[in-house]
Protein: Cell division protein FtsX
Amino acid sequence: MRPQFVLSEIGVGLRRNLTMTFAVIVSVALSLALFGGSLLMSDQVSTMKGYWYDKVNVSIFLCNKHDAEQDVHCAKGAVTEDQKKQILSDLQKMPIVEKVSYESQDQAYKHYKEQFGNSPLAGSLTPDQMQESYRIKLKDPQKYQVVATAFNGRDGVQSVQDQKGILDNLFQLLNLMNRGALGVMALMLFVALLLIVNTVRVSAFSRRRETGIMRLVGASGFYIQAPFIAEAAVAGLIGGGLACVFLVVGRYFTIDHGMDLSHKLTLINFVGWDSVLTKLPLILATSVLMPALAAFFALRKYLKV
Structure:
C-alpha cells in the first residue's frame, strides 16, 4: 500500500466532512478530558485517604460535672482520677494502640477558641464545660470498633468518637462526584462514537464511486478501508491531544497558579504532575484506538467490502 495514497485520502476525507470532523474532535476531546479528570479524581481520593487516615485519631471523651447533670452516659457523675488512670492503663495494654495523648479541659478550651473563636457560643463557654479526652492513634484505623466496644458505656466515659467516620463521609461525596463525572464522560463518549460512525458513513458514501472502481481493479478490503479508518484515527488523535492540553492546563491553573489551591488549601495533599503525565499516554492511545475501531466496524456493516 502506498503511504502517499493513504495520506492524500485522509486529507480529502477530512476536508470534505469538515463540520462533522470538527464535531468528532470536540466530542472526543471533552469525553477524554472527563475520562482523564475522573482518573485524577480517583488518584486524589486515594492520596487523601492515605494522607488523612494516617492522621486520624479515636477520641474518648470523659464526663465532666455538666455532663453528669444532662447526659445519660454520665449518670454516675464526672470521671474520677482512678477511672482516668484505669482507662489509660487499659489503652496502653491494647496491641492495636500506637500512641495515647491526653487533652485537659484547659487545652480543649484553647483549641476550641482557636478554631471557633468567632462563633456566638464561644463567649458563653468556660473551660470547666469542656471535656477531657484521650486521643488514640491506632496502628490500623480500621480497628476503631475494638476501642469503641471496650470503652463505650464505661463509667466516666461520655462517648467514643472516630474521626475516620467523618472522613468517610467526605470521601463518599468525592466518589459520588467522580461517578457523576464518569457518567457524563460515558454519555459524551457515546455521542462521539455516533459522530464517528456517521462521519465514516458520509465519507464512504461521498466516495462510493472511487471505492467501486477500486473493487473492480481488485483492491483488497483493507486497502479500501484504510483511509477511512485513518481519518477517524487522526480526528480522534487531535481530540485526544486537546484533552491532554485541557488536563495539563486545568492542573496548572487550578492547583499551581490561577486559583492556586495548593497554597490556599494546605490541608489537602493534591496529586502531583507525575499522576497527570502518566494519564496522557492512556488518553492518546484511547483517542486513536476508539475511533479506529468504531470506523472499522462501521465500514464492515455499511461499506460491504
